[in-house]
Amino acid sequence: MHLILQSLSPDSSAANAIATLSAASKITLISPTVWRCEDVIYSDDLKAQIDAACHAAQLDYAFVPPTRKLSDFKLLAMDMDSTLINIECIDEIADMYGLKPQVSEITEAAMRGELEFNESLLRRVALLKGLDASALQRVYDERLQLSPGAEKMLAAIQAAGIKTLLVSGGFTFFTDRIKARLSLDVTHANQLEIVDGKLTGKVIGGIVNADEKQRTVERVCAELGITAQQTIVMGDGANDLKMMGIAGLSVAFRAKPVVRAQANLALNFVGLDGILPILA
To answer: What is the pLDDT confidence band of residue 142, given thresholds at 50, 70 and 90?
Structure first.
């Protein structure tokens, strides 16, 4: 296997120490902050050692077959909140209403897998009843930012001819705008009900939960004539695990422990563009 190490700093001392731990036959500097350790003999015990050492040194790592390339994939599926973007939109909407602590607590429990997603969404949306819908635009304009590395990653993905899917347990108000802004191919999310310019505290139609996220990835794959193994899926919360589980490559981005434990690789420190050196 190749072991790819990535850092936010060009200081190579930690990377060299971890490369030595891996017993790599060769270490190649890919960029000032990316190292490739070649001919590493993978084992679960070695992975555990590398994981602990990288966490302590604030390095990201990935074990990848030498033949694995970006061209192996035809679809990139992404979660939105706290993955493609740096906020949980519903928490920021609630903040406009003075209810962020209550809503954030429910959000966190759901993302850790401690609370069923449908229940968590309905409880959170209900708390927003009566809020002026203009709060949605304020959140988009004032608080929503793309996660680090998002634009660089998407530029490379789109240049490679890979289709993009944004599938979110959040809301169409935001996915529609991000789709247009980033030229994404497909989006799917929940629709907030708005009457007379106010949120009613309800959603329209079915809820985009873990099962629906998986079905959406499968549906888009079928439409493209590809298999789920040709898909990269990125997420951060427990409701992303089912779609990540069918992917050819699952990527946990700044994710909850339950997600990091099940993903093929985790990006805890570098940006979303950290997947590019891994698949170079």
So the answer is: very high
Specify the amino acid at residue 165: L
From 81, 95, 236, 240, active-site residue: 81
Please state, for a pLDDT cut of 90, what percent of the chain lies above it.
96
Quote the crossing angle between the two packed helices 150-159 and 172-182, to the nearest 10°.
Answer: 60
Active site residue 44: no
The CB density around residue 65, as the number of other CB atoms within 10 Å, is: 10
pLDDT at residue 97 greater than cutoff 90: no
CA 64 to chain centre: 19
Q: Please tell me the predicted confidence (pLDDT) of residue 237.
A: 93
pTM of structure: 0.95
141 has catalytic annotation:
no
Q: Which of 11, 45, 79, 236 is catalytic?
A: 79
DSSP class of residue 237? S
Domains of the chain: 1-67 (3.30.70.260), 69-280 (3.40.50.1000)
The amino acid at residue 183 is S
